[in-house]
Design goal:
The complex is a heterodimer. By secondary structure, chain A is mainly α. Chain A has one domain: Four Helix Bundle (Hemerythrin (Met), subunit A) (Up-down Bundle). Helices cover 82% and strands 0% of the residues of chain A. The radius of gyration of chain A is 20 Å and the shape is elongated. Chain B folds into two domains: 64 residues; 30 residues. By secondary structure, chain B is mostly helical. Classes of the chains: A mainly alpha, B mainly alpha. At the A-B interface, helix 2, helix 4 and helix 8 of A face helix 1, helix 2 and helix 3 of B.
C-alpha cells in the first residue's frame, strides 16, 4: 500500500496475494467480454448471411497486422518480467517502454481503421446504417464498435498501468524481490491480448 | 512468479511461443480462406483456443503457478462454456 511505504510499518508485501487479486479481477474481465461473446454468438446464429455481408467491410490486413502487433507486445512485456528477475532493471524498463509503444501503434491502426468506417458512413446510429442496412448488419456493426471499442479502452488502461510499472522500476518500488506491479501489469496486458485472439477471427475472418 | 520456488522463464521460451502464435495466426487466416461453409467458424475458433492456451500457459505463467490458480482459471472458462451451452440449448430448441 502507498502509505505503508512512507511510515515505517511492517512490510505487507505479499506476492502470491497480489497475484490472486489480479487473477480475480481478470476473471471479472473475462466474464464481461464473455457475455458480449454470447450476445455475438446468438445474433450471428440468427443472422448468418447479414454477418457475412457486413464482415466484407472489414479489412483483414489491418486486423492481421494488429493481431501480430499485439502478440509481439505480449512477448516483450513477458520478457520484461524475466529481465527484472535476472536483475536487469534497465532492460526491463526498455522492454516495458517498447510494449507501451507497440500498444500505441495498435491504437493508431485502430484509429485509421475506424476512420475508414466513419468515412463510409458507418458508425452506431448513422443514417447510412439505419437506412440501408438490414437488422443483422446493424447488429454486426453495433457489436463490432462496442467490442473493439471496449477492447481499445483496455489497451489504454493497460498502457496507463505500464506507466506506473515503469515509474516503479525507476524509483525502486518495483525491484527484483518486489515484482508484483510489473507481473500484474503483464497479466493485464496478456488478458487484452487474449481477448483480441478471439475478436480477430470472429469479426475479421468471416468468409 | 511461482510462489515457493521462483521460476525464471528464459527469454527463449517467450520467443518460441511468439513464433508459434504468429504461425497459428497465419494458419487461421489461411484456413478461413478455404470454403468450408459452417466449419469455417469452428476452424477459426479452434486456432483461437490453441493460441489462448499458449498465452495462458506461458505468457501468463500458469504452467509455473500453483495448482489452485490453474484450477480457478479452468473453473471460470468452464462457467463460460456452460453459459454458452445453456444459451444455445434455449435458442436451438425454440419453436
Amino acid at each position: 500500500m502507498e502509505h505503508a511505504h512512507h511510515v515505517e510499518h511492517p512490510d505487507m508485501y505479499d506476492e502470491e496475494s497480489s497475484k490472486i487479486g489480479m487473477w480475480l479481477f481478470i476473471f471479472t474481465e473475462l466474464l464481461l467480454f464473455g457475455a458480449l461473446f454470447v450476445v455475438y454468438a446468438v445474433y450471428r446464429y440468427m443472422n448468418p448471411d447479414a454477418f457475412h455481408l457486413a464482415a466484407e467491410e472489414l479489412n483483414r490486413m489491418i486486423g492481421a497486422i494488429n493481431t501480430i502487433i499485439l502478440l509481439i507486445s505480449s512477448m516483450t512485456i513477458a520478457m520484461s518480467t524475466t529481465a527484472l528477475r535476472k536483475g536487469h532493471r534497465k532492460l526491463a524498463i526498455a522492454l516495458v517502454s517498447i510494449t507501451f509503444l507497440i500498444g500505441l501503434a495498435f491504437l493508431v491502426n485502430k484509429y485509421f481503421e475506424w476512420g475508414v468506417k466513419f468515412s463510409h458512413g458507418i458508425w452506431p446510429g448513422s443514417e447510412h446504417m439505419l437506412n440501408e442496412m438490414s437488422q443483422g448488419e446493424i447488429l454486426f456493426f453495433g457489436l463490432y464498435f462496442v467490442m473493439t471499442g471496449l477492447h481499445a479502452l483496455h489497451i489504454i488502461i493497460g498502457m496507463a498501468i505500464m506507466v506506473f510499472a515503469i515509474r516503479g522500476l525507476i524509483n525502486g518500488k518495483v525491484q527484483i524481490d518486489r515484482p508484483s506491479l510489473l507481473d500484474n501489469c503483464g497479466l493485464y496486458w496478456h488478458l487484452v491480448d487474449l481477448i483480441w485472439i478471439f475478436l480477430f477471427p470472429l469479426f475479421y475472418l468471416i468468409h | 512468479m511461482s510462489g515457493d520456488k521462483p521460476h525464471i522463464v528464459p527469454y527463449r521460451v517467450y520467443l518460441i511461443i511468439l513464433v508459434a502464435l504468429i504461425a497459428l495466426t497465419l494458419g487461421s487466416i489461411w484456413i478461413t480462406s478455404i470454403e468450408m461453409a459452417e466449419y469455417t467458424v469452428a476452424a477459426a475458433l479452434l486456432f483461437a483456443v490453441v493460441k489462448s492456451y499458449l498465452v495462458l500457459t506461458y505468457f501468463m505463467h500458469l504452467k509455473y503457478d500453483k495448482r489452485y490458480i490453474k484450477a480457478m482459471v479452468g473453473f471460470v472458462f468452464a462457467i463460460f462454456l456452460v453459459v454458452i451451452i445453456i444459451t444455445f440449448l434455449d435458442y436451438l430448441f425454440r419453436a
